[in-house]
Write a structure and sequence with these properties.
By secondary structure, this protein is mainly alpha-helical. The protein is globular and about 50 Å long. It has helices at residues 11-42, 45-58, 68-88, 92-108, 130-133, 145-158; strands at 2-6, 122-126. The N and C termini lie far apart (43 Å).
């Protein structure tokens, strides 16, 4: 569906490391640290995760090359990060997951990240339609990502290592 070709290792890699760390720390502290936790004081955990994930995905509506598949995948990613945050009882794990996804997707693999153009160590050459590759929105715009996120949510909910997800 895509081919990757080596581009170069540049100073952009260091910038991308810091930039996506700042983005993920900011978004996770605001959405999971503040919004999710405040919602949990008034609502059940499952409702809190859904509402905070909807807010998270709405933050990306005005990004370049927005798509509804991208919106849906960002919403599902918010659900994954929200459940992970609750089960771990800390925002640090969701920061790490969010950062690693953005950093690997953009500065390493060369995909656009939520519509933002990025230059990576590799260059992406799409061989299929935008629905499968994510097009200019990035991998988050790919329908192929949806089952991967759903499986990830299932695993985070089911794995005993994590604390119990509360529905109270």
């Amino acid at each position: 569906i895509i081919t990757l070709s080596f581009s170069d290792i540049s100073a952009h890699l260091g910038f991308g490391f810091g930039f996506y760390l700042l983005v993920s720390v900011t978004e996770e502290i605001v959405i999971r640290g503040y919004v999710l936790n405040n919602l949990r004081e008034k609502l059940r955990d499952d409702y809190s995760v859904i509402i905070s994930s909807l807010i998270f995905s709405c933050l990306h509506i005005f990004n370049d090359n927005f798509s509804w598949i991208g919106f849906s995948n960002i919403f599902l990613s918010g659900v994954l990060l929200g459940i992970f945050c609750i089960k771990q009882n800390t925002v640090s794990g969701s920061v790490g997951l969010h950062w690693s996804w953005n950093f690997i997707q953009g500065p390493i693999l060369g995909f656009n990240v939520s519509g933002h153009i990025d230059k990576g160590v590799f260059g992406v050459n799409p061989l299929a339609s935008n629905m499968f590759t994510g097009g200019n929105f990035g991998a988050e715009g790919s329908i192929l990502l949806t089952p991967i996120i759903l499986i990830s949510i299932f695993l985070v909910v089911r794995i005993r290592y994590f604390t119990k997800f509360q529905n109270s």
